[in-house]
Amino acid sequence: MKKKLLIILGAGSSIAVGLPSVDLNRLIEGWGTEWARQHGTTDHYKELLKSAKTYYERGLTQFHPPLNFEKVLGDMIAMAHWMEPPPWGDTLRQAACGARLPDLQFRYHQEQENEIAEALLATSLLSDECDIPGGECESIGDPSVAVDPLPEAEPAVDNGECGERGKYGAHIELMDEYSYLLEKVARQMRVESQRLNSANKPEKDNYRKLLGGLREDFDIGVYNLNYDTVAPDALPGAYIGFGESGTFEPRVVHERKDWDFVYHLHGSVHHSLNRRYGDQIVWRPSLDGEFFDGPEGTWSEPRSNGIKIPRTTLVAGGFKLDQLLFEPCQSFHASLVRHVHAADAILIGGYGFGDAHINFALRNRLSLTLNGLLQDRPPVMVLTLAEETTKPMRRRDDLWARELGVSLCTGTQGHFVVEPSNPSDPIPTELAKRGTFEVDAQHRVAVWYGGFTEAVHRLPGIVRWLDGGTDNVLAAHSAQDI
Questions:
Q1: CATH class of 3-18+201-265+324-481
Q2: How far apart (Å, rounded) are the C-alpha atoms in residues 249 and 198?
């Protein structure tokens, strides 16, 4: 029987084939400006981006998370929860600033406030004594709720919890912009995937040959953290978690003993809500069909600590564990933990080690010990792309190297060696040119610096390393021998 190889693909695995071929950070900034112009209010995404940048610049360390669109989207969710009135919002608002509003401006919309008031009444979230936006609730379910008209005015800060502009407007605005941006991301990625499907690039062939070659030697299972179509296209016939009708099959996912699958843990361009205002994600085989991405899920069920996150087809930004609570993401994450423990070898391609739910799944498996010794630890191969300034692992002190060391349990610098006879530690770009790997033989981790698709040229060595045979041991003495 073939050994089981678990493959985890991050954004770096798709860059060479053209995805992401656009700067999503730049595009989202433009979409935020577009949303603000349409609604006559502040671009909250832009304001939170500036705030995060200022905050990081005040620090004395380079180990802050990357300041990208995902970071800002997470801040939008946190701020929306902060802006909810008592008792549903963040209680730290009282402790941090005496319940005063942050230095952000909001312009509330009468129509939106009426809609959310009705939604709250329908779900019995309001008590008999509480206020509703723009008026007071005399009794639950009273259809004659009085709502004062809002005057046309420039953006203004709310005047406390009982301001005349209502209490939910700021929360609504943040959630609306968040949903709008995620919907735009889904549409953009779908367009880019269609463009990629029609393109003829040699990198696409290398991508297919790499995964196809691994498939010949191993029983593989892929967890794709990207939204694109590259991985399932490279592995025709692999199970994707959905039936022929496009319906998600959670029981099959949990009971399936066979591998040969590609699961999109963070969503896919093929995902769609089952209908407008739908509550289930389905798989659309053709990207030319009709898709529903949101913002229909703006008022979804509360997640941990009462945080509300719109149900969308893509998982992006902060609070990923909360976003993963809905299917198919929850089942895929549960199966990831199971497959990490079942794998005979692990290959990680283009992943930045920035997702805690992935890192802990790896760490919990690779940290197992028996009588103080590492217990049956599977070999790990990391495929990445080095820059000219990238240092060898045992001299690195950056966030990626640290997270790799913690997640793969090698320590901060691990026990990486290139060749014992060469104490000068060649820089990673030189190793890539020579077709050489950096190796931590003690922890059975090897790193390839030449890029994901270029790794196809070292496929035999990668297979030997992952197979865990004699060449795996020899690699401790000469990384070139892998």
A1: alpha beta
A2: 30
